[in-house]
Amino acid sequence: MLKDILVPLSDSSADDAAIRFAVEIGRSQDARVRIIETVDLPPPAIGTADPTPRASFLAAQDACRREASERASRIRARIAEHPGVSVEVHEAGIESPAELAARLAFSADLAIVGGWSGFAKADPAGVALFNALLFDAGRPVVVVPPHWRASDHSCAIVGWKDTPNACRALHSAIPLLQQVQTVLLVEICSHSDEMEGAAGTVTASLIEHLRSWGIAASATRLLARHRRSSEVLLDHARATKATLIVVGGYGHSRLRERTIGGMTMELLQGATIPVLYAH
């Protein structure tokens, strides 16, 4: 069961979706939800002989503080009827907002952020926030697309392979998987001979382990042929009306993902339902 959920806001169009998702999960888990509004203070002028902060610089910082406080007040008004949900304002100071969020996530079971699925380009600030939470804090991260709405249909897809990242993602997701009716462990094969081979790592023992947690799971294999694994997974999610995807984050290096692509970046860009990542 989850006890502490962190929602660092990035001042994006998906912040509202992340808050709605976090409130739903917090209510179902009886967990505390901390919504973090960050004050990203402008740096002082560099290279001036006088070290005393200029009035214009101090005024700019005060304006940032007021804007953040006003945004936090509006959020508090919207979520006032939800117990256990708080809104905090933190100043980044010498840290970047992403570094601040990672430090605050040390005391969270799960981080939830708004995504940018469907936009022409990934949001650099959003990617930095996601990477900091995943790598610097080592927390599982749920990325919620901008137009997410709660659904009555209840199905989760786990993109499974025999890697530590996939294993961490699966076990991090257990509190969320306990809330859905159906869990599908999907192993994507590149060639038909893999489909015909042994059951691999999606074994009966893994299904049995999930069953001990009260999770009804089944396993399947899908043939990718010449398609990207992310496309196959997303198509299967649409076909099964899945409401959550669970995958390991960055099975390849971040540089490789940025230059030639990979499951993580492709899901960040293309998933229209929440995705839980762990590394």
TrEMBL record:
Family statement: Belongs to the universal stress protein A family.
- Name this polypeptide is given: Universal stress protein
* Domain of life according to the entry: Bacteria
CDD domains registered for this protein in UniProt? USP-like
Where the record annotates domain UspA, the positions are: 1-113, 211-276
- Which InterPro entries does the annotation name? Universal_stress_UspA, UspA
The organism's taxonomic lineage, starting at the top: Bacteria, Pseudomonadati, Pseudomonadota, Gammaproteobacteria, Lysobacterales
* Pfam families xrefs: Usp
Instruction: List the PANTHER family hit by this protein, alphabetically.
Output: STRESS RESPONSE PROTEIN NHAX, UNIVERSAL STRESS PROTEIN HP_0031
What Gene3D superfamilies does the annotation carry? 3.40.50.12370
